[in-house]
Amino acid sequence: MDPYESDDRTSTGKAQAEDMRAGRRKAARYVVPVAVVGVAAATIGLVPALADSGDPSLPDITAQQLIEKIAESDAQQLSGMVKISTDFGLPDLGGLESGFMSGAAEGDDGSSADPQSKLIELASGTHTLRVAVDSPDKGKISVLDNAAEYSVIRNGDDVWAYDSKSNEVYHSTAPESEGAREKAPEDVPATPKELADEALKAVDDTTSVTVDGTAQIAGRDGYKLLIKPKQSGSTVGAITVVVDAKTGVPLKFTLTPASGGAAVVDAGFTKVDFAEPAASTFDFTPPKGAKVTEGEDAKAPESGEGIGQGIGQGLDGLKVIGEGWNSIAEFDTGGQGLPSGSASGSDDFSGILDVLGDQVTGKFGSGTVFSTRLVNALITDDGKVYAGAVTKDALVKAADAAQ
To answer: Which of 12, 15, 111, 130 has most Cβ atoms within 10 angstroms of its Cβ?
Structure first.
């Protein structure tokens, strides 16, 4: 079956595939962007309480037609609530992982409102978001946490982030060019539509795409688009996107691992309204007494600081091994493997790494594999890194083949 066919096989052939690729390119232009700054790990999801509330009866549609519906959607205004949860299977390090990930932004000149550190919290647990979008250059997303609230607002060229708990503000300017904007940290996927767009970029001849029935999300009828790797060796089991039947906007995104169990990433609306949000939604003035940090004033981490000493120094040499869902990123840290206990300031640090990772050997020598339910990484003793949404065995084979 062609990867873009629906179950009734109504569309086949290379012409079909070319049409689908064109549809994906067009879809990228219609994505409703939300001004949320963070890191790629901060993917988000939907709690189990948001199970489908029904299977509405809708006209038949093919997978190609459904992807084209997403691409042709012109809905650029919406507001609503999103419930989120993620389960990457990360070990409990007693706060060590959040301290490490946020360390880059919390120096003497840093800010607790800096999204690079704040939104890493979305990488685990359950959260509630309030979202509003009026155009590609105007959006707001707020993370609600008991009595506290953290918001990121984009209004034209200005991007503001505010942490009510610490009363700190972080301000930056949006990139001028679209090319630069696509690479900006504030464009981390944060809504079902953005997550769906990222998934559609991965659709190629190594992927099966079908229509898998219907569902109702946030009171709206939708079609379920099922995306599955054809290749073995990927840790991705399947991705399901519920697409609003009327507007073509993705309402829910679910990624399940090949190993089974609960979803790794599950994102969906509990409430959604496609009316124009009030203009005042995107107004922001730093509260009285708040500490304001400008983006260019934030202190960058010095080379060699922290647990990741040397790890990022060789990223310029990054290359990709394999194709499709079995792609593996390879880069060299410059001969620096994992830090020893003495280098980290703790005699027990090496022992901790041994507990968290699995020791492996091969033609490449020896190294340690660190695993989650989705992404695995092999760090060799001579400082090479192999990472991807693939199994441990696939990483070892890639390292051996690179010799």
So the answer is: 111
Residue type for position 130: R
Instruction: pLDDT band for 393, please (50, 70, 90 cuts).
Output: very high
Q: pLDDT digit string (tens) for 230-266?
A: 988 999 999 999 999 999 999 999 999 999 999 998 9
Q: Where are the domains of the chain?
A: 14-297, 311-401
C-alpha of 402 from chain center: 28
Query: Which phi and psi (to 5°) does residue 138 adopt?
Result: -145, 110
pTM: 0.72
Task: Report the CATH fold assignment for 311-401.
Answer: TATA-Binding Protein (3.30.310)
Q: Mean pLDDT lowest for which of 9-13, 213-217, 261-265, 314-318? A: 9-13
Taking only the tens place, the pLDDT of each residue in 32-47 is: 222 222 222 222 222 2
Helices and strands, counts by H and E, the chain:
9, 18
Strand order across the beta sheet in which 328-332 lies: 319-321, 328-332, 384-388, 376-380, 365-371, 358-362
With beta carbons less than 8 A apart as the criterion, state whether 258 and 237 touch. yes
CA–CA separation, 40 vs 34, rounded Å?
Answer: 15
Classified as helix, coil or strand, 326 is helix
Q: How confident is the model at residue 189 (pLDDT cuts 50, 70, 90)?
A: low
How far apart, in whole angstroms, are the C-alpha atoms of residue 380 and residue 368?
Answer: 6
- Grouping H, G, I as helix, E, B as strand and the rest as coil, residue 67 is helix
289 contacts: CB under 8 Å, gap ≥ 6: 167
The span from the CA of 233 to the CA of 359, in Å, is 20
Give the Cα separation of 163 and 143 in Å (integer).
Answer: 10
CATH superfamily of 14-297: Lipoprotein localisation LolA/LolB/LppX (2.50.20.10)
In whole angstroms, give the CA distance from residue 161 to residue 22: 36
Q: Tell me, what amino acid is at 115?
A: P
